[in-house]
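Subject line: Sequence and fold of a protein, written as structure tokens
Enclosed: The protein record, placed directly beneath this head.
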Amino acid sequence: MPVSRTERLLNLLIALLNTRYGLRRSELREKVYHDSSGNDVAFGRMFERDKNDLRQFGFEVETLTDMGWSEDDPATTRYRIGKESNRLPDVQLGPDEWTVLLLASQLWERAALGTAAQSALRKLQASGRLADVALPAGVQPRIKPAGQAFDDLVSALHARHPVTFMYLAGSTGNEELRTVEPWGLGSRFGQWYLVGHDRARKAPRHFRLSRITSAVTTLEKELYTPPADFNVRRELDRLPELPLRTAVVEVREGKLLALRRRSSVEGGAAGRPGSGYERLAVQYRDPEALAEELASYGPDAQAIAPPGLVAAVLRRLRAAAEFSAEPAPAYSFGAARAVAVRKRTSEDQLKRMLQLVPFLVHNQGLHIQDVADRFGITRKELEDDLQILICSGLPEGYPDDLLDIHWDDDHVYITQDLDLTKPVRFTVEEACALLAGLETLNGLPEVAEGGALESVTLKLLAAAGEEGLRAASLAGPEVAPADAATHATVRQAIESRSQLRLRYLSPQRDTITERDVDPFRLYSLDNTWYFEAYCHLVHGLRNFRLDRVQDVHPNGAPVSAGITPAEGVPARLFTASDDDTTVTVQLTRRGRGLADDYYAERTAELPDGGMVAEIRFGTTDWLPMFVAQHGGSARILAPGELAEASRRWLAASLARYGG
């Protein structure tokens, strides 16, 4: 039976790594390819493709010839790969450095770089056993997923392909098609920016991801070369902060406490006589962010000035209303959540195997399910990998020439590794994920102090080599908490296991409540921090935003015995309960990231790149706000009464603006 492409490449790699003199093409054809077809032309094409594939993995295939002979003569040309070719240098880390590295790897969570960060972490674990470390209480920062556009741009950036997208120009308010060579991605002022060369304008430009109004299309047949010394963090440091401006907003009397807290009555005047509204002056910097908020308030708020803000709110409301009025698509849910992932290829499998062998060498005796979980695959997929590995080895094929792996008792051991004891070097994505994550952690004093952050960064830069230099194309957001005093109070209570008395503003219910809570852990999305706690008012686990805490202090009681936090690290922003309502939501391609943000339980792909998702919500009264806020990226399909409620909400919102 013909061997798989993965097995063939693995055997070719092992053969070329384990020869000093080099192997001739005829020897490789007989002992590795087992090809006796006699078709020299077909074999030659296959061999050249395989050599190119190995070079794509970073292995330098050396060509050796006897003195005086030409490389064109296959009878005298030999091939080999140096044993240190493309190997990750040893990186020795102490417990404090492992702690910092774990925090950095978890920053990206579900974003495109989350998988790359975990892959890089496995490579480091394959260089030596992971020390037993515990994440410190109160320090579980995460980077907020920036949507599908971010994932697409990261992929194009690292592959150096140009992209096209529709963009809402801030200067004109018009949508325009842009073709851009992406140089870097970074976060500033709470927004993600793309920096790149705009081909139409023939100059570098900044593009805010929130203004991209279409799917990002990658021009995969084209390549570009970015500036050699480009640093996105340095580039974004030149961006001036948007000026502070004032909007005039009419707000329904007695409503929107959160908005009122940062507003003032406009000129001391009420709204139109007898209207039930009053005018507020709201300071803001980003009109798009304020427009998103005001759109979510629906008929409870109306933007009056400036005109650009009014237009931005209307654009969202109209897009949401048009999307909600479309016919429901045909869809079918699978038995379980359909995770949208790229189809795995032979290259993916070989990459995994080249991590798997050194990982097993340095982590002998792990349970087979633990190994599968570390690599993010099923047990069946792992066993398929192991079956290929134990049939792979040196060309002679004697027992001592094969990889020796066994897992008879469900614990995996490897006793023959054939010089595959070191993982391959970091890819560009892996280096960017870890190094950009470490740089982001500089904003947390409790992590930056002590020297571990600086030392592990220097070690990874040295290990990453050229790929590490390309990490300058990515810059994460600020993660320091806006209210350091509240953060410190909650963190101290977690460490001392003390109960807290809390006054909390709930924007969805538009109320301020008092409650006693048992705090368990702190975590963040960018610099918006939350803490997970058992709430004695509702007798269940809840998550509280620190910037909505009006007052917090220990009440003198210890936390209750027998109550534990939800499983998983990082903590989930939404905690499911038996009383939740299952809602069917349709998402466009631009809004499909919401399925991950709200932990969809089942999804169905749509032909246009969007999806239908089943999401559980604890309260549903605010879902019309959810639909309006996302301006045409999300709508409710079921239950029917919720879909109708959101349509009425949007109609009433548009009526405030005259239709």
Q: What stands out?
A: The first strand starts at residue 23 and ends at 24. The CA atoms of residues 187 and 384 lie 41 Å apart. Residues 337-343 have pLDDT under 50 and may be disordered. The longest helix spans residues 307-325.
